[in-house]
Amino acid sequence: SNYDTTTYRFTPTVAGYYQINFGFKTSVAQTRTILVVYKNGAQERGIVDLQSATGGCVMSCLLYMNGSTDYIEPYAFLASAANSATGSVSSCFDAFLARAA
Predict the structure, then answer these.
(1) Which of 1, 53, 80, 101 could potentially form a cystine with 15 if both were Cys, beta carbons 3.0 to 4.6 Å apart?
(2) Where does the pLDDT of residue 83 fall: very low under 50, low under 70, confident under 90, or very high at 90 and above?
(3) How much is the pTM?
């Protein structure tokens, strides 16, 4: 319930370590998919998935969040020879408190 669908930010209210899971899939063939998690506006973790067929990319990481001002934003960057706007796209994101501070 700490994910804001207007700003696309997750801002937890309890300090601790959070398990972050993020996935992205498209029906259009991609030459490169990059998933990045930004913390407080700066890149914190990322993964590059080189692929030549349709498919998806997933990433998980453990991040410390202070429970008051820290926030994270998930981003997906795609490179494709085709126009990816014509294909279907799906994504998933979840975060949970793995250990309180």
Answers:
(1) 101
(2) low
(3) 0.82
